[in-house]
Queue: 2 jobs
Job 1
Amino acid sequence: MQDISGKRVAILATNGFEQSELEVPRDKLRQAGAEVHVVSLKAGEIKGWDKSDWGRPVPVDKTREEVRPQDYDALVLPGGQINPDLLRVETKALAFIRSFWTDKKVIGAICHAPWLLIEAGVIRDRRVTSYKSIKTDVINAGGKWEDSEVVTDQGLVTSRNPGDLDAFCGKLAEEIREGRHERRAA
């Protein structure tokens, strides 16, 4: 992975995130030199979903109220079915995501997390992938869906599932190193 020392990354999640889709990007981006914060709606811990049952708790570094998009260079949205479904009804979470897009910063979303991109209004006319069960949702929202392990469109990095995490993390680091994507239309 590319060196992204000095970069700051927020991972926005709540209970029910897919365990590996939060922990692997968090750990790999930290190993690449980034300062990574797990951001959630409430302080304390959030509990993951690990394949077919509840997983391990993960400490929350900051609450959504304690952070501003301008504090970060990139945003990562882990999937799982429960996590993005809970977050996509949270107005402040959607505004947080939308701010990263408007500010032309890198956003990574994996598995079911493109639901959040749909609700935040950033998926239209973008090349993306997702977990196969939400393909129709993505297409109906105007996304250009592809069945690839990682798809990148002007700083928007998406992947299908935990099997794509190496490609997802590698592309995230590359995009974070490149910085803002000025040609992107908000």
Job 2
Amino acid sequence: MPRVKIRPQELFDAKCFFDIITHTNLEFIEFPIKTLEEERYFLRLNETKRKANFEYNFSILYYGRLVGACGIKIDQHRPWIGENGYFIDRDYQGMGIATEAVRQLEKIGFEQLDLQRIIILMDTRNLASERVAQKCGYKKEGIMNKVHRIGEDYYDCFLYAKTR
């Protein structure tokens, strides 16, 4: 069994995801999901999002246990560009899981989705996410001002990218 594996999200993942997002301090991500039913609704939309070439969401498994999520959102004006995003359960952070998940996600983006460019945006305060991008060979292209919103506040993000 591989140490880290990603697979398409399933409806039965809802309880695990809800547990992760309610007990992990994901200070650099705003989750609109407040109930288990809202999480189930989100997961039900995945097939429609894939068919529309809008978003591809995956569960991150660590030795078979669901510990996070990742996904590629396709730029609807430039469908050759995708944006990677990810989060990991607090009990599994700092173990290289996000780095391996991003590598697998990148392979899907370039090889299966035929993307030419993949970007990762992260809050400039999120040093762990910046390290993931650097370890995966993404290059910092700059800072995007006030592009990230949490609640009523706007934050700057680093823009990292990799091309085929």
